Amino acid sequence: MRSILITSRDPILNKSNPTGPGKSIQLIIPIIKNKYKIYLLTTKSKHIFFYVYNHKKNLFEKKKKFDFLKYRYDLVYINGIFSILFSFMPLFLKTKFYISPRGMLGDEAFEFKTLRKKIYTFFLKYLIIKKDVSFISSSRKETQEIKVFLKKTNYNKIFEIGNLTGLKKKNKKINIYTKNFNNKKKFKFITPSTISRKKNLLNTIKALHKLQSKINFEYDIYGSINDQKYYNEIKKYLRINKITNINVKPPLSNKELINKLNNYDAMLLFTRGENFGHVIPESAKALLPFLISNKTPWNFFDKYFFGLICDENLLISIKNCIFNFTKLNQNEILRLKKSIQRFYNDIVEIERDNIEKFRNLFKKN
Fold it and tell me: What is the edge-to-edge ordering of all strands in the sheet holding 75-79?
């Protein structure tokens, strides 16, 4: 049996609302576990761990973290870009590599720690061109970002395969009951997201705060804290403005999240940059309307519905997006939910194609 080392700074075995990069690997593992001996170098609760998959017990067993250097691998799958341990050091191993950038080569990824990241990627590119490396892109946008990164090199090994969602069954029923949004009822908004500046949560909170006099609402953010400083800024803003109807809560497991989504009127994700956004198809499964920025790969859903995409840089754009949604009448909401149903069913069809593409990709090695 061939062997594969998967490296990821984002937790892979975290069942409680894993990050997008971590969930992407979670969904690939079942496709390859009967063909490869799997080794994982990843994190959990901000600690580094090395795991070996035990086929007989169907579970990952923990080993000493630097034991990963003792093994030989037929393939190394690097999940992400910005990590010395998880992305740079593995490239010194003598084997074949797949790299999934997970959106880390986009312009928005360089908005923070710009100089440090540019220096890092300069040396990373130099190392890559000396190795047998293929890139796995999850969208046309990311394919273009990889090409820009590799410019002035002869590298063109890029496989474009959409991220897996884990969604398999089509939604054949639709609950035709919808809240009459013209009534003065309380709107419930949700954002399942890591707490980081990239997610633009503070601007979302500010936009909602400006709507306090116009709509009655409650807003819940569920997620782990990736950026403590940013989290402190959010808490400070809530405290200074004495806001009690906006809450930051711990992350939910996938099962808890799906059940929780049914209790809300809309999901908000005005991100400054998103490689995928697993919560968007998950919201679609619950037929929950979602209001998002123009910085996700889902902008093509304009063909499904209207008025749900805004410019994440403009506070007034976020504010208007939310306010306009609350003014939709019952027929418009029903039309919206039917559109979301078509969108979700199309995702399920795409999922089957992507699973087959991943199977074929790993057959080649």
Answer: 59-63, 47-54, 36-44, 2-8, 75-79, 96-100, 132-137, 158-160
